[in-house]
Amino acid sequence: MLRLVTPESSGIQIPVRKNLPVFLTESGLRTELKKLSGVDAVGAEARVAKLSTRSLKKETKKSAINLAISMVDLTTLEGADTAGRVSSLCSKALRPDANDLTAPSVAAVCVYPDMVATARGVIGTSSVQVASVATAFPSGRASLAVKLLDTKEAVDAGADEIDMVIDRGAFLSGNLFKVYEEIVAVKEACGSAHLKVILETGELVTYDNVRRASWLAMLGGADFIKTSTGKVGVNATLPVALVMLEAVRDFAEEYGEVVGVKVAGGIRTTKDALKYLVVVNETVGATWLTPDYFRFGASSLLNDLLLQRSKQQTGNYARPDRFSGD
Question: Rounded to whole angstroms, how far apart are CA atoms 74 and 295?
Fold first, then answer.
C-alpha cells in the first residue's frame, strides 16, 4: 500500500514512492532540477552521427532485427479506427508473419481508450501488452479531472500501459510543478498499469528542455519516457533519443530506478531502427536492450523489419503483400 502525503498547496495527493523524492512545493522541485547540467548540443549530434555509421555483421543484424520487432508498439491512432481494424492489428501483433511462426510477437498494441476493450478481447493473456493513449492525447489540453477520467476508463477497459502526454504549454511557460503534479496523479490513476510519459520533444525547442522534461517525468513516477505523439512536424530524432537515454542512465545511477525510453514518430525503416539500437547499446548498454525498457512507437516500421528479416533468412526479398498493410 502507498502512504499518501497531501501538500498544503494542492489538492493532489502525492504518493510516497520507493527511492524517489517527493516534492511538495515548486521551489523544492526547481532546486532538484537545477542540479542538471546543460546538454552539449554539438557533442550530442556529433556522437549520433558517428554511431550512425556503424555496420552490423550478418548474424548480429539478424538478432537485432528480431529484437527490434519485439520492441514495436504497433500503433493505430486515427479518427477512422474501427473495431475491425484494431482486431486485425492485434492479430498481426501476435503473429507478425503468418507464414513464419518463428517471428517474434511485438511488445504492445497502442490504441485510443475506446478501442482498449476490443484490443484486449483479441490479445487476451498473451505476452503482447495493450497500451492506450490518454490525458487528452495528443494536445494534453484538458483539465486534470478529464485526464484522470481518460486514464481510468482505459485502465478499467483492460489497458496494461498508459501513454500520457504532458502539458507542453505549462512546461514551456515555467509551470513545472503543475506538470509534475499531473504526472504523479496520472501515475496513481494507472494503478498496476505502466505509465509512459510523452514529452513531445519536437515542441520543447532545446536539448536542455528535453533533459529537464525527462527528469521531471521520471521524478513524477514514469515507467517510460517517450519522445512524441507522432502528430507534430518533428518527432523522434537520434540526438533527442541520446539525450533521453543519458537521462535515464543518470537517473538510474542517482535513484536506482530503471526507466524505459520509447521513440515514436517517423521511424519507418529497418535501417533507422538499427541506428537507434546502436545508440542504445553504446549509451546505456544491455540493460535497456529489451522491450521492458526500449520501444519503437510505429505503424509502418514492422513491415519493413519483416521484409528485411525475410531477406536475411532467405537471401531474397519477400513480396510486400506477404505482410498485411495494417
Answer: 10
CA-to-CA distance for 151 and 132, rounded, in angstroms? 9
Cell numbers for 103: 517471428
What's the DSSP call for residue 130?
A: E
Cell of 50: 558517428
Model pLDDT, residue 298:
87
Specify the number of domains making up the chain. 1
Catalytic residues: 163, 226, 262
Indicate which CATH number applies to the domain containing 259.
Answer: 3.20.20.70
Angle at 92 between CA 90 and CA 98, to 5 degrees: 145
Domain that holds residue 193: 4-322
Note the pTM of the prediction, 2 decimals.
0.92
Give me the residues of the chain with pLDDT under 70, please.
Answer: 1-18, 319-322, 324-326
Q: What does each C-alpha distance from 289 to 68, 70, 86, 223, 245 come to in angstroms?
A: 9, 11, 28, 15, 12
pLDDT, tens only, 72-125 = 999 999 999 999 999 999 999 999 998 899 999 999 999 999 999 999 999 999
Length, in residues, of the chain: 326
